[in-house]
Amino acid sequence: MAKMKPRTKLGKLNRFLSRLFIILLIVTVAIVVFSAPKVAPVEDTVATSEDVAKIDEFKPGTYGGVKFDTPEDVVKFYVEAFDYTKTLTATYKEGGETKTYYKLLGDENLAVENLLIEGKSNGMIDKLVPGILGGIFKGSPKGLPPADNRDPKLDTRDDGKIDETHSHLTAEDVLACNVTDAGNGNIKIQIQPKQATLSMPDADPQGRFFNVLGDISSTVNSISVLSFSEGTIDENFVVTYKGGVGTVTINASTKEIVEADYEMDVHINVQHANVTVIHDKKASLDIIYKNHFPASDEFLKTSKDITRS
Hints:
By secondary structure, this protein is an alpha+beta fold. About 25% of the residues lie in helices and about 35% in strands. It is built from six helices and 16 strands. It has helices spanning about 10-35, 70-85, 125-135, 215-220, 235, 295-305; strands at about 60-65, 65-70, 90-95, 95-100, 110-115, 155, 160-165, 175-185, 185-195, 195, 225-230, 235-240, 245-250, 255-275, 280-295, 305-309. Strands 5, 8, 9, 10, 11, 12, 13, 14 and 15 form a nine-stranded antiparallel beta sheet that branches. A hairpin with a 2-residue loop joins strand 8 and strand 9. Helix 1 (about 10-35) packs antiparallel against helix 3. The longest helix is centred in the N-terminal third of the chain and has 26 residues, at about 10-35. The protein is globular, with a radius of gyration of 21 Å. The two termini are about 30 Å apart.
């Protein structure tokens, strides 16, 4: 019998986000209706659609003994470091069994911010969000993003058609990047990919750099209690990836990534939503998804009972 690939956390993440949105929408509207005198809402600010660089611009020079003349050189070096680092494995114990995973494993953390219903925030629902998140989302160890698994033999997507052991990032995918000396023979590279709407794995700038959520709209569309008073789901459920940055420390001589932080920023905007007795509501929220490498021994142990050998 062929070994089945475990269901990934990202697949669960789609279902989690859709359930979270519905729960928060219903609870928030109920609070606004029944506790309006006690609530001091704050109006939403108008978000810009412009894709703006959040990091310092690239400056040509020699860093860690490596010459970088163009942003293309920075992206090329990052891709080479990514590919090399994903060839490195280590032995772990998971639940008492010996496993071979990536040498560099990272953690994952997710937060929901700026939850607005009808363009307004609500202090009571904001206090409920951490508890709802903690009850649904549990992080697990991962390889460098994009990654579908911590086991390099299983790190593929789309039935093996997408190999996540290699980076498919290109210079055209990058809005901004830079490189600096980090000391001890290391360099630090920052990369901000260009924005994308409803990002798909390996299909756009965000999907070639982060662990994107994929087709979350189809998951939301399958929820029987949710409908839209006008328009289609593509018109009313907009998922924008923008502003996320990866900061990666690399040994300049070996090209091994020794430390990294990835922050993927996602904005979800919903219009004309109907949920059970609630009609024609708009809502928005920001998802901040982070990966840090290397994961701590504590995270490995508490998340999946993994210990380093």
